[in-house]
């Protein structure tokens, strides 16, 4: 798994890592609000995704947006994202961060397509934070990061099926 993690993280070159770091700064100042914005957009597009989280299942769709549970999850999500961004300077540190995120999400049966579904929502919020402009190369860098995480989740789940 370490060689897979290493080969995946190498897909982000130094320039792309800098683009992610620089653009994340626009989101950092209001991280909780921006994380909530990502999830509000995600659930507007995919309302059934709320069933992934056991603590969201009992909350009516109309109340989910203002729920403390969603606000707390958005805060945790942004903390995880910040940890990844802070890990971008070193391959080993980045590898550990994305591996940990992938393992956690794999346990909850999150699939690669769930991760891919978050990309447009993240990019929309990021674009808003950046004053309405999101360079294509920055969008590509973020998309690659999420693809890396999705690929690792997929491989972990395939590995666990083969080991069962």
TrEMBL record:
Organism encoding this protein: Pristionchus entomophagus
Domain Globin per the UniProt entry, residue ranges: 11-158
Entries under PROSITE patterns matching the protein: GLOBIN
Molecular function per GO: heme binding; iron ion binding; oxidoreductase activity; oxygen binding; oxygen carrier activity
The organism's place on the tree of life at top rank: Eukaryota
Family (UniProt): Belongs to the globin family.
Xref: InterPro entries: Globin, Globin-like_sf, Globin/Proto, Globin_lamprey/hagfish, Mb-like_M
Keywords per UniProt: Heme, Iron, Metal-binding, Oxygen transport, Transport
Protein's name in the database: Globin domain-containing protein
Subunit description: Monomer.
Pfam families membership: Globin
């Amino acid at each position: 798994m370490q060689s897979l993690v290493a080969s995946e993280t190498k897909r982000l070159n130094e320039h792309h890592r800098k683009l992610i770091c620089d653009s994340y700064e626009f989101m950092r100042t209001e991280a909780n609000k921006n994380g909530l914005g990502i999830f509000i957009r995600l659930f507007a597009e995919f309302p059934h995704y709320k069933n992934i989280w056991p603590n969201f299942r009992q909350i009516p769709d109309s109340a989910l947006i203002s729920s403390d549970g969603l606000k707390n999850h958005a805060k945790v999500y942004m903390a995880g994202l910040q940890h990844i961004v802070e890990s971008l300077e070193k391959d080993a540190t980045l590898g550990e961060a994305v591996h940990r995120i992938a393992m956690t999400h794999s346990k909850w049966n999150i699939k690669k397509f769930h991760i891919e579904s978050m990309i447009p929502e993240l990019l929309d919020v990021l674009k808003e934070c950046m004053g309405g402009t999101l360079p294509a190369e920055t969008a590509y860098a973020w998309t690659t990061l999420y693809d890396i995480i999705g690929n690792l989740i997929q491989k972990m789940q395939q590995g666990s099926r083969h080991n069962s």
